[in-house]
Amino acid sequence: MSNKSVLDAPLLERIRGRASGYDEDNRFFQEDLDELRAAGYLRPRPLDQMVADQRLLAAHAPATALGLGMHFTWMGVAQTLAAEGDESLQFVLDDAEAGELFAFGVSEKGNDRVLTDSVTRVEKVDGGYRYTGEKIFTSLSPAWTRLSVLGRMDDQIVHGFITRDTEGYTIHDDWDTLGMRATQSHTTVLDGARVDQSRLARVVPVGDLTDPFIGAIFKNFLLLVSAVYVGIAERALELAVQAVGSRTSMGRDGASYATDPDIRWQIADMAMAVDALDAPLRTLADDVVAQAPHGPKWFRLLSGVKHRSVETARTVVDGSLRLHGGRGFKRSSEISRLQRDVLAGVYHPSDTEAVHHTVAFDLLGSEAP
Ligand SMILES: Cc1cc2nc3c(=O)[nH]c(=O)nc-3n(C[C@H](O)[C@H](O)[C@H](O)COP(=O)(O)OP(=O)(O)OC[C@H]3O[C@@H](n4cnc5c(N)ncnc54)[C@H](O)[C@@H]3O)c2cc1C
């Protein structure tokens, strides 16, 4: 495993330079993927490094980072389990070292139980399992080579991976969204798609949140998603500073907006909000790597940091847009794209209701009277 980021400045600038075109054309970030794969970016590394890299990448191209966050979630899950002495996902790490790209096929229409239940049906067959159902919002649809799927078989949730050459699935080219367009998160219809026994990840009882496999998904997914929105917030602040430095006020005899006390106050407020995201994100990523004993409080801490990262990013992007003046409202402006991209954050688990439920449960116990 490498300890050094492969994200050098020229690569990041090329990636930033392509982001608006992908968004405008509603096109997958293929060239970014090709360059990042060639640079070794897809390889597994400790969660704290993946989080730091993803945060930086998101500040240059949010959709590229969000899409690749699905791959890194599986790298993180496999590593978290391995650190706990469970080598069952070693094949995931081996595949990634060999250049495979992992996607995340969890979401289903109307399934707000997310990981703990499924409307996809699973049938045991000779040497594996067959999945029938529909997965929505499958990021990396044009490019994944391994797709995780979960479905229900009696009272169990069966998690496994299909390969791109598996028969029995169809990708519907139906991604046309307000933001995060380059993720190309199409619908995936599973029609008896086969997970080979060798690619079975876990079988978990319906409703169970105690299996370390589920805990590992929460830890890695929520921190890697948070990293994307922290990166967006950091970029929005950077753009706000640039914008106020380049605007002058006729009302203040041509003075720079950067000298206006009201504007300075707004920038300072935004910066304090952004700065407050750094420590929780890095601390929790370190805690995952160090296997900190947070026990059931993990859920509260992780969903809380995701919620705060997204909500702060939304506020900061909004403030930055105001400080840009009318130029920010142009369709071609980076901040207007960030305004659309950042909205995606509210839809990823844990959504607003789920995070409040989780935090209240940790403090107050069950809602049952
Ligand atoms: C940019 C982005 C990338 C994502 N990438 C991934 C990914 O890679 N993998 C993944 O698993 N998830 C991914 N997600 C999915 C995300 O985590 C959520 O599951 C998703 O946003 C939908 O959540 P929801 O609860 O709002 O869905 P729902 O409210 O269930 O709505 C989703 C869709 O289903 C329709 N729908 C809802 N209920 C019904 C019903 N009963 N009957 C018929 N239609 C219905 C809605 O009209 C809507 O179009 C991504 C989301 C975003 C925004």
Describe the structure.
By secondary structure, this protein is an alpha+beta fold. The chain folds into 3 domains: 9-97, no CATH class; 102-205, Butyryl-CoA Dehydrogenase, subunit A, domain 2; 212-364, Up-down Bundle (Butyryl-CoA Dehydrogenase, subunit A, domain 3), CATH 1.20.140. 49% of the residues lie in helices and 17% in strands. It contains 10 helices and 10 strands. The protein has helices at 9-25, 30-38, 47-58, 62-83, 90-97, 212-245, 261-289, 297-324, 334-342, 352-364; strands at 102-105, 121-125, 128-138, 146-153, 156-163, 169-172, 186-196, 200-205, 248-249, 255-256. The strands form 3 sheets. A 4-stranded mixed β-sheet has the order 1-4-5-8, with helices on one face. It has a 4-stranded antiparallel β-sheet with strand order 2-3-7-6, with no helix packed on it. Strands 9-10 form a two-stranded antiparallel sheet. Strand 4 (146-153) and strand 5 (156-163) form a beta hairpin. The longest helix is centred in the middle third of the chain and has 34 residues, at 212-245. It is globular. Flavin-adenine dinucleotide binds next to helix 4, strand 1 and strand 3.
